[in-house]
Amino acid sequence: MAAIDQQKNTRKAVLIIDDHPIVRQGLRALIEQEEDLTVSGEAGNSAEALDQLATTTPDLLLVDISMKGPDGLELTKSVRSLKPDLPILIVSMHDENLYAERVLRAGANGYIMKEEVAQNMIEAVRKVLAGDIYISDRMRQRILRGVAGQRQQPTSFSVERLSDRELEVFRLIGQGRSTRQIAEELHLSVKTIETYRAHIKEKLHLANANELVRQAVQWYERLSPSES
After folding, report:
1. CATH architecture of 159-223
2. Confidence class of residue 151 from pLDDT cuts 50, 70 and 90?
3. What is the DSSP string of 148-176?
4. Which H/E stretch holds residue 12?
5. Domain spanning 2-146: which CATH class is it, in words?
6. Could you please report the per-residue DSSP string of 125-151?
7. pLDDT tens digit sequence for 12-40
8. Among candidates 47, 75, 71, which has minimal Cα distance to 171?
9. Which residue in 195, 223, 188 sits closest to 95, CA to CA?
10. Contact 46, 71 (CB under 8 A)
């Protein structure tokens, strides 16, 4: 019995943050079949995650990008200001070309796409827990090419031009949210969201609000064709 208790105490604790209960259930099952890992808790959004972190400190956060309210990118920034050394692994259905570099700049320790979870999740978790950065080999090469000065220049319509918050607003527009709904979800004023919309139109060279909505919806459908 003492040996079993000791094994439990040496397991690394993971907090899962994702707004889909089925996804959380799948991640929990994957993690808890490992002898050296356990799930310490779950959260469905950034606010719930921060509430849990106020009283507990897991060994690693497993964070989805797209959540209601502040997204995983904004949560990463908040956690970094509170717990600078807490490992964070981003798990997302979105293409790593769009988000991987952003989350690393925000302070995350790795990025893995959900389509790779079954094969590479445990490897990614252990690598981040060991103090390393986890990204795919393809993404690593892309970043190295950028460092070497071989990065491609963004086209006139390229969301790479957008700031993290502008990208979050653009994604929510693509999901069909109104300005007021976005303001309420992100806990910002309507005027602030209108300012973000204006900046997005300028950076993406969009003529008006209708074109902004149309482009956002088309972009989001390409980005997340399988999201319900």
Report:
1. Orthogonal Bundle (1.10)
2. low
3. TT-PPPP-SS-GGGS-HHHHHHHHHHHTT
4. strand 12-17
5. alpha beta
6. HHHHHTT--B--HHHHHHHHHHHTT-P
7. 999 999 999 999 999 999 999 999 999 99
8. 71
9. 223
10. yes
